[in-house]
Please model this.
Amino acid sequence: MGISTSAGQSMSPQARGRELARQGKQLWRQLASVKAVAAELISRNPDVPSIQAFRYAAGLSQDQAAMRYNEVTEHQTSLGGTTINAWETWARSRGAGSPPPFSSLLILAEAYGRGPLGVTVEDVSPGDLVAEAYERLPAEDQLSLRRWSGKPGPRSNRAFLSSIGMSDQQDADQLKVGPDFNLTVPTIGYANPEICVFSLPNSRPGNLLHLSWETFGFGIERLIRQIKNMGWRLDIDICFGVNEAGLTMATFLASAQFSRCAIGYLRCNKVRDSVTLAPTSFYPEVGGAPSILICDFEVKQADVVGFLASEIRRRYPQALLYFAVFGAMTKEVDLEVGSFDDLTGAQIMRAADFSAVFMAATMGPPGIEPPLELR
Model:
């Protein structure tokens, strides 16, 4: 259980901090992941900024966090708890505290990645620490974070393999992932247009590429990273899943990134050359002008995306639509495309006029098959 609003208001900041750190340690024993614990704490306590949630996830007070920071630098620094407090105050509200420099975010990410016991080695992205306050960082640090997130590093393929205990041979057999590369995608004017995607090479051309759960999970993590690095905290009211594979994506994203927002379901039926939506589709009720994320497993040549976007806008007239796709097909054999327009569905996605597009991977024909043949 989280701390209720009334209970949080009646507690002193120090008492609340101790309670959240205690919860962080308890959750870590269950989840064994600082990132998962931080996400859960933010879900329970929306007023807690990411940088503070990660400290609680590591079970540390501000003074203990400063000590851990100095340990990471092998005591070449003498950071104090007041600096940790200044960074967290800055993340919590405008006009107060001071932003952590990029170099300090790197150190802090490693410090918190060691967990409550100080002995684990979990890859925490420095960008995750300032997810909701990214746009208030100095321009130089924003650029550094974008470049950092675009390189194989904290969440590279090999790091992911290590985190789930897989060997290099298992990598070849199960995690069918090619090189990372950056791609500029359509987005609203003040957002970060660069995303880091990976390719899905197919060793058997002409056959569907069957993905393992490891590859599927890796793609979901990549989408989460892109959403966190778009330049501000994206709040979504409904995650719509297209068919069962998209619904699985929507469920993971709604739980991990969007504080368990409402989940919708778009069941597509093909009738000759057209697409219709089955009566079993589900449209959650929401007021105002909602932000909606449509999750689809793959985009090829057919204009399914445009049809779905039109249907969602008809039901939610003032909605802002975002789109997340696992795999997008390329026009040429080379999967490491240099431009968004090198994708077969580029014009379809542009015409749908999404506020932003997120994409985990590129693929070649005839396409990819999700785990357990989810449709």
